[in-house]
Design brief:
Elements (H helix, E strand, L loop, with lengths): L5 E2 L1 H5 L8 E4 L2 E4 L11 H5 L7 H4 L7 H5 L5 E5 L13 H11 L10 H11 L2 H8 L6 H10 L3 E2 L14 E3 L2 E3 L3 E3 L14 H10 L3 E3 L7 H6 L7 E5 L5 H13 L5 E4 L9 H4 L23 H6 L12 H7 L4 E6 L2 H9 L4 E4 L13 H14 L9 E5 L5 H9 L4 E4 L1 H10 L1 H22 L12 E2 L14 H6 L14
Parallel strand pairs: 1-4, 8-15, 9-10, 10-11, 11-12, 12-13, 13-14, 14-15
Antiparallel strand pairs: 2-3, 3-4, 5-16, 6-7
Length: 501
């Protein structure tokens, strides 16, 4: 006889207060009373659903196992008696009807010719809050725009009369085969933009031999993503370090046991940047904040980014690197290096690589682009005799929209490049098929650009093929990137309340 408790909706509804707060998520009843003040999104968003089914609000911004992981087992009260559930017809708002009409009117996928097209479609069909979260960057979004502009200050120096009848753009990343010299970089909360979330990336990456980096803050659980993988599919793990190091240790070791091939520790986020597009959405409750944020003023308009990330440890320091090396044999990469000085320290700390990144422009505004930092990093490492070293790989992310951008980074010393938002927008707009189309577009561009450069393999992409002399000259004139300018959404200012005056 089963000892699983079954509860009626009337029993759950009797616990709809701060003093006793039960909610239903995915058919299971949980007592979250003691968790209210610890919830990173604040207690009010939970109390809004007290005594009711919170699944619809929970699912887009939490991995499926978030509640089971964070709540003690004794707080898992039992299953809901589905016969007592009142079936309600959800009212479709005019905004949602308009969005569904736009989805039906999307451009045919074969007319999408570049990554900017995906961004344009995603911006049009995504819910406003989802677009604000995905597209936002910090402060005045200068770094977000600079990430794109920097690549246009690097010019090609193509070689001619080489036999380029056959070109090969495959490579290895951390010793793992990749059909492209790029990986799918980690982006959070995929289900805000598509019901299948990050699984769209997983399935498409499997079909094309591309490596996916799994985000700590993915909407899909880590195990769901791994379970959906093809045999032998390669994954990296992006890690936000939890203040509770035991949670981090278990997570890392579980990932290693399940076959992850690289641990990318995010090191540029001791506190999140002010992402004003996201903040204006007021995605979370008025009292958003958690234990890790004590002593800081956490305003109600911090947006979804603040709501989901309060666990991140601001005390992470160089002294912690030996601890990470002690808990895993997986190669360790530091993601978020922004200076030559820190690149040198990373090499001396014995990690296996670095990502030159400014977090997609979402952290410190007016930080330089990864491609610009790459030049000073390779120079500093070379002067010390540290580089090139096959045991230490350098990656770049931020602003990549074309295969030509990737080739410029490789010519300047990068092993590969991380691409995040373009693949995110591809699946938000078209699901798995969108990601597959994006990969195919990159392949087509690699073939054309390598032939025109006179390079038959990635190893033949060398520094002499680019002129980066203007890279650090931030005032140099370059032709406008018309497509980027069309897709970029300018920041807004505070708005007056509606008035009858």
């Amino acid at each position: 006889m089963s000892d699983i408790r079954v509860l009626s909706t009337s029993e759950v509804a009797a616990h709809a207060s701060r003093e006793s707060c039960w909610i239903i998520v995915h058919g299971t009843v949980y007592d979250v009373t003691d968790f209210l003040d610890e919830h990173p999104g604040g207690s009010k968003i939970i109390l809004k659903y007290a005594g009711n089914d919170a699944t619809e609000a929970y699912e887009p911004i939490h991995p499926p196992d978030a509640i089971t992981t964070n709540l003690p087992v004794e707080k898992h009260l039992g299953l809901i008696d589905e016969s007592t559930l009142v079936k309600t017809v959800k009212e479709v708002t005019p905004e949602e009807r308009r969005r569904q009409a736009l989805l039906a009117a999307r451009p045919p996928l074969d007319t999408v010719l570049n990554m900017h097209d995906f961004e344009t479609v995603a911006r049009t069909v995504l819910p406003e809050k989802a677009w604000a979260y995905y597209s936002s960057a910090s402060d005045d979004e200068i770094t977000l725009r600079e990430n794109r502009m920097a690549y246009q200050r690097v010019w090609f120096r193509p070689r001619i009369l080489r036999d380029v009848s056959s070109v090969d753009w495959s490579t290895t990343i951390l010793g793992q085969k990749s059909s492209l010299p790029l990986y799918i970089s980690a982006t959070a909360l995929g289900k805000l933009g598509h019901p299948e979330g990050e699984l769209c990336l997983t399935k498409a990456a499997a079909n094309h031999g591309v490596i996916q980096m799994i985000a700590t803050l993915a909407s899909c659980s880590f195990d769901d993503i791994i379970d959906a993988a093809a045999p032998g599919q390669t994954f990296f793990l992006q890690l936000y370090v939890n203040r509770d190091r035991e949670i981090t240790r278990k997570y890392v070791q579980h990932a290693e046991a399940r076959g992850v091939k690289g641990l990318f520790i995010t090191v540029d986020a001791p506190q999140l940047g002010r992402r004003e597009k996201d903040m204006r959405m007021k995605f979370v409750g008025d009292d958003a904040g958690a234990e890790v944020q004590k002593g800081q003023e956490v305003k109600k308009d911090q947006g979804v980014a603040r709501a989901i990330s309060s666990f991140i440890d601001p005390s992470l320091a160089w002294k912690d690197i030996p601890w990470f090396k002690s808990i895993t044999k997986v190669p360790i990469i530091l993601k978020g290096i922004a200076t030559a000085e820190d690149a040198v320290l990373a090499y001396e700390a014995g990690v296996q690589g670095i990502v030159l990144s400014n977090h997609g422009g979402r952290q410190l505004d007016t930080a330089r682009s990864g491609i610009e930092v790459l030049v000073e990093v390779t120079s500093a490492l070379r002067r010390r005799g540290y580089w090139p070293d096959p045991r230490f790989e350098i990656y770049v992310d931020g602003g990549v929209r074309r295969a030509s951008d990737v080739l410029k980074a490789i010519a300047l010393g990068a092993k590969a490049v991380g691409v995040g938002r373009p693949f995110l927008y591809a699946f938000c707009a078209y699901g798995q098929e969108g990601v597959e189309r994006a990969i195919q577009l990159f392949q087509d561009e690699f073939e054309m650009n390598m032939r025109l450069l006179g390079a038959r393999t990635i190893d033949e992409i060398v520094p002499d093929m680019v002129d980066a002399s203007s890279l650090s000259a931030h005032t140099v004139l370059t032709p406008d990137d018309k497509l980027f300018n069309l897709t970029y959404q300018p920041l807004s200012v505070a708005k007056f309340k509606e008035s009858k005056l």
